[in-house]
Amino acid sequence: MLKPLVIASDLDGTLLAPGGALSERTRDALAAARADGMAVVAVTARTPYGVDMLPDLLPYLDGAVCANGAIVYDPATGRIRILRSIRTSLGRKAVAAIAKRLPDAVFAVENGTAIVGEEPYRALVGASNWEFAPDVDGVFKRAKRAVKIKVYCADRSGEEMAAAIADAELGGLTMCHWGDFGMLDLNARGADKAFGLATWCRERRVGPDKVIAFGDMPNDAPMLAWAGRSYAMGDAHPEAVAAATGRAATNAEDGVAQVIEGLLDNDTAAAA
């Protein structure tokens, strides 16, 4: 693979250090990559608001793909563009089907600018841009639009949740989980990190062969499989490992920065 034009990275568990900070080594690596002509794109399950909560990262981003690929966000201008959303009627039917299999589930809906969750979510998220409603009906009414549906179970793993609803009628919605953490995300049909990143790249005439991607969780797997070169983090979920072309060190070891430094060193050596 030639020098990439785009570095696409998941954030939590991948680009960000444990605790959610951006290490000095990673900042330096991103700055050097951009100075060498590479674009940096965050590809995340976070909302645009969640990206804005990382002020140390924003100066190093050329763009962001949010909500698992359903939104393209420009942090420099604040422009939010929704690529795919979920029809409210379909979302309600999917939630009802899930509730039958997971009676302990708590639901939330992202609408592109905010998140509305059932009241039990309040204790989980604390002060944030979340809003709350007493039940699922109130959640959908208050959200008005659904870009992503979140499902949480306190006493189940994400893998257990996914298995429990594997044959439920979800109307073709795209589903992903986070392994041990008891949460699922549902997006519109075909909306995943590969779709969102491919959209961002296509508009800039960049093909997958010029993209290097990093991730650690099952929701990263489509992006890791799409990119010409991709790295699962050292402690990544097996689904991410299977989709990637290589492995990086963990986020605690600045694994993304290590790979970027290697790319820049190889580029320097080739030019010598």
Q: What layout of secondary structure does this protein have?
A:
Layout: E1 6-9, H1 11-15, H2 24-35, E2 39-43, H3 48-52, E3 63-66, E4 71-74, E5 79-82, H4 88-101, E6 106-110, E7 115-118, H5 122-125, E8 130-133, H6 136-143, E9 148-152, H7 158-164, E10 174-178, E11 181-187, H8 193-202, E12 211-215, H9 221-226, E13 229-232, H10 238-243, E14 246-247, H11 255-271
Parallel strand pairs: 1-2, 1-12, 2-3, 7-8, 12-13, 13-14
Antiparallel strand pairs: 3-4, 4-5, 6-7, 6-9, 9-11, 10-11
Helix pairs in contact: 2-11
Question: What is the CATH class name of the largest domain?
Answer: Alpha Beta
> Using only CA atoms, what is the Rg?
18 Å
Structural class by sheet pairing and helices: alpha/beta
CATH architecture of the largest domain: 3-Layer(aba) Sandwich
What is the 3D form?
globular
Q: Gap between N and C termini, in Å?
A: 19 Å
Total domains: 2
**What fold name goes in the CATH topology slot of the largest domain?**
Rossmann fold
The strand line-up of the biggest sheet is 5-4-3-2-1-12-13-14
Query: Please, what is the average pLDDT?
Result: 94
Low-confidence stretches: none
CATH level 4 superfamily of the largest domain: HAD superfamily/HAD-like
User: Care to count the β-strands?
Assistant: 14
Q: Main β-sheet: number of strands, strand sense, barrel status?
A: 8 strands, mixed
Supply the number of helical segments.
Answer: 11
User: Beta-sheet strand percentage?
Assistant: 15-25%
Portion of residues in helices?
A: 25-40%
Protein name: HAD family hydrolase
Keywords: Hydrolase
GO molecular function: magnesium ion binding; phosphatase activity
Organism: Glycomyces luteolus
